[in-house]
Amino acid sequence: MSGGFFNYQQYHINDIVDDIERELNKQGKPKPKDELWNTEEYYKKYPEELYNEKLSIEVQEEFKRGIKALKIAQIYVQRIDWFLSKDDGEESFFKRLGKELNELETKS
Hints:
Layout: H1 10-25, H2 40-45, H3 57-84, H4 90-107
Helix pairs in contact: 1-3, 3-4
């Protein structure tokens, strides 16, 4: 495997992105049984507690902007990692960086 200058920590950025996306996707959906810690009476009184919180549109949009920023950061860290590890020279550094940033932009 190439790289290694940052001990492959750039992959943790992808894990964070996945966690944020998971939070966005579970909004308003029923909580899994293992997350329901209270009594049946409690949930009858507070049925909204059976569901995951629904974030405001403004918060959702900021989360999405954050996801994009993190994806950009991951691309930069990966490309810099390969450059500093001598896997890429200047030409391939700029070529791959531009290509990956362009691909991200076209997906968004």
